[in-house]
UniProtKB/TrEMBL annotation:
Keyword annotations: DNA recombination, DNA-binding
Entry protein name: Tyr recombinase domain-containing protein
Source organism per UniProt: marine sediment metagenome
Annotated GO biological process: DNA integration; DNA recombination
Keyword ATP-binding: no
Any Pfam family hit: Phage_integrase
Gene Ontology molecular functions: DNA binding
Positions of the Tyr recombinase domain: 8-182
Keyword Protein biosynthesis part of the UniProt annotation: no
Length: 194
């Protein structure tokens, strides 16, 4: 699915493509990064900054510094993002297996490593041009298409303005509008209101 957003295109993978992408790697570190990028909708810089101490496993929540949005005084805001139970479990297993320092990032890698990893996973499933932000767009598009709350999506993504979220991800096809029109307004071929 490709949606227009201003002059940009927002490309989202289908759910089937996301599932294929998540199955590409057997390496626990690579699998974990892909899961975090999709199942949280976070930016690659936010995923790479996550530390073991940021995981609140019992709440299925991760505290993430909102690296793109800064408060006055150049202090980063913290966003609390929800994640699925399977990703929490994978994070806990990975942190324990690697005996990671709670204060240091889970991934001691740079963004180019992450970009390359996602790009290669995309190629492996037959999709060119897949990058970390594609997983963020896919997460948000699937949320919106499933009828999820846009204000909750805004919070999960860390957007300052709701309009950023709605303009980018709340898209309706002519068919979607026609279905609602027929359901709400009705009318038959003779012009009679139903």
């Amino acid at each position: 699915m490709v949606e227009q957003y201003g002059a940009e295109e927002v490309e989202a993978l289908t759910l089937a493509e996301v599932n294929k992408l998540l199955a590409v790697y057997q390496d626990p570190e690579k699998r974990l990064l892909l899961r975090i990028l999709y199942f949280t909708g976070c930016r690659v810089s936010e995923a790479l900054a996550m530390r073991p101490k940021d995981l609140e496993a019992e709440r299925r929540r991760i505290l993430v510094p909102a690296l793109k949005t800064k408060k006055a005084g150049n202090i980063h805001k913290i966003k609390r993002i929800v994640v699925d139970a399977a990703t929490v479990q994978l994070m806990e297993l990975y942190i324990r297996a690697k005996r990671l320092n709670r204060e240091k990032p889970i991934f001691r890698r740079d963004r180019w490593w992450a970009w390359d990893l996602v790009k290669k996973a995309g190629v492996a499933i037959g999709k060119e041009g897949v990058h970390p932000h594609t997983l963020r767009h896919s997460f948000a598009t699937h949320w919106a298409n499933a009828g999820g709350s846009m204000t909750k999506l805004q919070r999960q993504l860390g957007h300052t303005r709701l309009s950023t979220t709605t303009d980018m991800y709340l898209k309706f096809s002519t068919e979607d509008i026609r279905e609602d029109y027929d359901r709400v307004i009705g009318g038959d071929e003779n012009g009679t209101v139903l």
